UniProtKB/TrEMBL annotation:
It comes from Pieris brassicae (White butterfly). PROSITE patterns: SOLCAR. It holds the Pfam family Mito_carr. Coiled coil: none annotated. Keywords: Membrane, Mitochondrion, Mitochondrion inner membrane, Repeat, Transmembrane, Transmembrane helix, Transport. This is Mitochondrial uncoupling protein Bmcp. The keyword Repeat applies. PANTHER family: MITOCHONDRIAL DICARBOXYLATE CARRIER-RELATED (PTHR45618). GO terms for biological process: transmembrane transport. The keyword Mitochondrion applies. It is a multi-pass membrane protein. Solcar repeats lie at residues 7-96, 108-191, 198-289.
Length: 290
């Protein structure tokens, strides 16, 4: 591979895709729970679901099991870009900074790891934002067409800006998740290496702990970015519900209460836990193979 090591990028993308397939139905229930109950959006005023399980069952019965995977292809496309850039950039930057330190990178540096993770998360999420918009629109159930027609429709009606709808909270959320998740995983893995060794059980526990912290930190931004991405007809200001990230945050709290910012928290964590477990187990096995 020459002087540049591409393995973190390749392994990160492959492991992200595997994890996405394994947890996507949970993500669909999370998205639908976050959208419902918007008192200022007539399309989503009704509280259709009482919780994650109810959403899962009703969606399966009313729309078929296939509906739980509606939006999977833009999600896979997103992970092929987002996951590849995020994890590849993080581990590459981390390695580069470690090589320049006086200790030669023999010790972990929390501040450096946090910076690298936040930068990698924000950058990769901004680049992959159009695929996230497609995924959200298809998960809500408004877009029944294939990914290409959905893309063309958004571009035709809303322009290029429509494909980057919600990019600010999406990037902020991704940076926040990465800044918590990746350093926590690395720290837990390092601490647990002595009692558990560098084995799957260590990777399992470390990824589970990392996902809890990132779910608590990121859910409010996730609710905001989901609602912004689902907002349509952005060329007509007279029917624009949210003006931006801050406005969406304020209006959500004002009309639904602060608890609304944690709508979908359980499926968010239940998805992040298995997603991280599948990802890191796959990533570590790929590292061991080559």
């Amino acid at each position: 591979m020459g002087n540049r090591d591409w393995r973190p990028f390749i392994y990160g993308g492959l492991a992200s895709i595997v994890a996405e397939f394994g947890t996507f139905p949970i993500d669909t229930t999370k998205t639908r729970l976050q959208i419902q109950g918007q008192k200022i959006d007539p399309r989503h005023v009704e509280l259709r679901y009482t919780g994650m399980v109810d959403c899962f069952v009703k969606t399966s019965k009313q729309e078929g099991v296939k509906a739980l995977y509606c939006g999977i292809w833009p999600a896979v496309l997103r992970q092929a870009t987002y996951g590849t850039i995020k994890f590849g950039t993080y581990y590459s930057m981390k390695k580069a900074f470690a090589a320049r330190r006086a200790d030669g990178g023999t010790r972990e540096h929390l501040a450096t790891n946090t910076f690298c993770a936040a930068f990698a998360g924000g950058l990769s999420s901004a680049i992959a934002n159009p695929t996230d918009v497609l995924k959200v629109r298809m998960q809500i159930g408004d877009e029944k067409r294939n990914i290409v027609r959905c893309f063309i429709d958004i571009y035709r009606i809303e322009g290029v800006a429509g494909l980057w709808r919600g990019v600010a909270p999406t990037s902020q959320r991704a940076a926040l998740i990465a800044a918590v998740e990746l350093p926590v995983y690395d720290a837990c893995k390092r601490r647990l290496t002595a009692p558990l060794g560098d084995r799957p059980l260590n990777h399992f526990v470390s990824s589970l702990l990392a996902s809890l912290g990132s779910a608590v930190a990121s859910t409010p931004l996730d609710v905001v970015r989901t609602r912004l991405m689902n907002q349509r007809n952005v060329r007509d200001p007279s029917i624009q519900i949210y003006k931006g990230t801050v406005d969406c945050f304020v209006q959500t709290v004002r009309s639904e209460g602060a608890r609304a910012l944690y709508k979908g928290f359980i499926p968010t964590w239940l998805r992040m836990g298995p997603w991280n477990i599948i990802f890191f187990l796959t990533y570590e096995q790929l590292k061991a193979l080559y």
